[in-house]
Design goal:
Oligomer: single chain
Number of helices: 7
Structural class: alpha+beta
CATH superfamily of the largest domain: Glucose Permease (Domain IIA)
Number of domains: 4
Number of strands: 20
Shape: elongated
Strand content: 25-35%
Distance between the termini: 97 Å
Order of helices and strands: HEEEEEEEEEEHHHEEEHEEEEEEHEH
């Protein structure tokens, strides 16, 4: 009987302990959850890499005092309690992490999230906007620009209405700033499309040697690639700075390539994709730059690609990004220091927008594909400064 009594006491102790723990962790939040309601926010959008638009204001109603609460997120942020009016509590917060992927914030107290306080936002970055605009043709962009202009004018007129209450005016002002930001970004895309490419290697002009331009033959690799030169070689000394030839976005980086990696080249039973992948291996360290004109530039045989450079970074034309190295093809003693770059022409297939993968882009036509060397040399000035 005593053994059963001890087991009962042990069971009771465990139940009481668990009950106390559950109560201490959840009961307060549950109590306050019932009395907190999300009322509004200044905007549903956050522009993470803009210091004017990476903040927002949210409003909660509660019969409890929320002045000791704060806004939190799973991304780095700062929060401030602004004040209250009657039972409405106002909080301001700013997301500091430009790479934030969690699109909601919430109220917390003593490091405990309040369940009914979660609010979801639309997260925007320059990288995301770049894709949204750059993968459209000029006709579509001009229409979008016109639509944004109409929305701007509409909201400016609303702001002039004397009957609009103060909170609504704040929302309209925020809307105007967001529209301006998007419109300015879109107009930059359109403006950049009108510009010619600069040389990718400072102080070195585009090569006019017929063996260093698109469509030159490469018979030594005929058995395992398409054996055609897709771009230009710019001969320059080792470690010469290489720059972005246009405003654009980094979409691929290959670092730390070794001569032994050439063993990955497949040489038997090849299909088209095998040959394409082989060609990619021969290019060693690479950076791919997606330009404002939809096209993608392949930079190859690179050295010292900075660790700070990341996929999805937006770069300006002329930005130094890496240095000239060596191709080591066909062998490790082949010391031809040069930059190889090819410009791949986006086919603009609407169903593929935002869905192009690595092999899709590798198989795009390159600039001047199937054109004679005479034609290329006579027309290079149409695309390069």
């Amino acid at each position: 009987m005593k053994a059963y009594y001890k087991i009962f006491l042990l069971y009771l102790s465990v139940v009481l302990f668990v009950s106390f723990w559950v109560y201490s962790v959840f009961s307060t939040d549950l109590f306050f959850d019932a009395k907190i309601n999300l009322k509004n926010s200044l905007s549903k959008n956050l522009f993470l890499d803009d210091n004017k638009l990476n903040w927002n204001t949210v409003f909660y109603s509660s019969t409890n005092n929320l002045s000791k609460y704060k806004i939190n997120s799973f991304c780095k942020n700062i929060s401030k309690f602004i004040g209250r009016k009657d039972d409405i509590y106002i909080f301001e917060f700013k997301i500091l992490d430009k790479n934030c992927k969690t699109n909601f914030v919430y109220l917390e107290r003593d490091k405990k999230a309040i369940k009914k306080s979660f609010i979801k936002f639309n997260l925007f970055t320059k990288s995301k906007l770049f894709d949204f605009y750059a993968d459209r043709d000029n006709l579509s962009l001009n229409k979008l620009n016109s639509d944004l202009e109409k929305l701007l004018e509409k909201n400016k007129k609303l702001l002039e209405d004397k009957n609009v209450i103060s909170f609504k005016k704040l929302k309209i002002q925020r809307k105007i700033e967001e529209l301006k930001y998007q419109k300015n970004f879109l107009e930059k895309i359109l403006k950049q499309r009108q510009k010619k490419f600069i040389t990718p290697v400072s102080w070195y002009k585009i090569n006019h040697n017929k063996n260093k331009i698109p469509n030159a033959w490469r018979p030594y690799r005929a058995s395992y690639t398409d054996w055609i030169h897709h771009g230009w070689d710019v001969m320059a000394p080792l470690n010469t700075p290489v720059q972005a030839l246009a405003y654009g976005k980094i979409i691929r980086i290959v670092r730390d390539f070794k001569f032994s990696d050439l063993e990955k080249v497949k040489r038997k039973n090849l299909n088209k994709n095998d040959k394409t992948i082989n060609l990619d291996i021969l290019r060693w360290n690479q950076v791919w730059l997606k330009t404002a004109s939809w096209d993608v530039v392949f930079y190859a045989h690179l050295r010292n690609i900075p660790k700070s450079l990341k996929i999805w970074d937006i770069v300006e034309a002329g930005t130094k990004l890496w240095e000239v190295w060596i191709s080591w093809v066909p062998d490790k003693h082949y010391t031809d220091y040069h930059l190889h770059f090819a410009i791949m022409k986006n086919p603009k297939i609407k169903r593929k927008v935002w869905k192009y993968d690595f092999l899709d882009i590798m198989n795009w036509d390159w600039y001047f594909k199937n054109k004679s060397s005479k034609y290329i040399l006579e027309n290079e000035d149409n695309i390069f400064e």
